[in-house]
Amino acid sequence: MGTKDPSKAPDDDVHVVPIEDSIDLHFFAPRDILSVVDEYLREAQRLGFVEVRLIHGRGKGVQRSRVQDLLTRHPAVVRFGSDGLGSTVVELAPRKDQKNRSGHEASADPRTHGVKRDQ
Questions:
Q1: What pLDDT, in 10s, does the model give residues 76-87?
Q2: How far is CA 46 from CA 33, 80, 95, 103, in A?
Q3: The domain spanning residue 61 has which CATH number?
Q4: Do residues 67 and 54 make contact, with C-beta atoms less than 8 angstroms apart?
Q5: How far is it, in rounded angstroms, from Cα 54 to Cα 76?
Q6: Is residue 101 included in any domain, yes or no?
Q7: Predicted TM-score (pTM) of this structure
Q8: Which residues are within 8 A (CB) of 15 and not within 5 positions of it... i.e. 6 or more apart?
Q9: d(Cα 94, Cα 88) in Å, to the nearest integer?
Q10: What is the pLDDT of residue 99?
Q11: How many other CB atoms sit within 10 Å of the CB of residue 63?
Q12: Is residue 47, in this structure, part of any structural domain at all?
């Protein structure tokens, strides 16, 4: 009684980050970057953000390359591009229940933006 099991101690590596329109990835271990970006994008989309900035730094471009590779296949991402200053600007698809600018429901496929494609 009274002693705590160290195996049940809180994880010291857990970071709680407020969701804002940008995230600085310098504060995370390189091994965690992709999972951080994935979770950040999902939460930013859920909160209704339409554009976010991922700050990865200039350097040799290793982190930028890894992050942008993830963005090419991420379901929340419509498009993205480097700003030339060490970050990538990402346009997010609207949530399925979120109205787009014309007041219509967002399409089921976020990449179509409500445009009907030829069958």
A1: 999 999 999 999
A2: 20, 18, 6, 18
A3: 3.30.1370.110
A4: yes
A5: 14
A6: no
A7: 0.69
A8: 27, 28, 36
A9: 19
A10: 58
A11: 23
A12: yes
pLDDT digits 0-9 by tens, 6-35: 555 455 566 666 899 999 999 999 999 999
Residue 115 has pLDDT above 60, yes or no: no
Closest listed residue to residue 44, CA positions, set 72, 80, 17, 14: 17
Does 44 fall in a domain? yes
Q: How wide is the angle at C-alpha 42 spanned by C-alphas 52 and 13, nearest 5°?
A: 95
What is the pLDDT, as a whole number, of residue 15? 61
Distance CA 71, CA 89 (A): 11
Residue 58 per-residue DSSP state: S
Domain housing 47: 26-92
Tell the residue number behind the tokens 């445009």, with chain if given. Answer: 115
Dihedral in degrees, nearest 10, Cα atoms 68, 89, 47, 71: -10
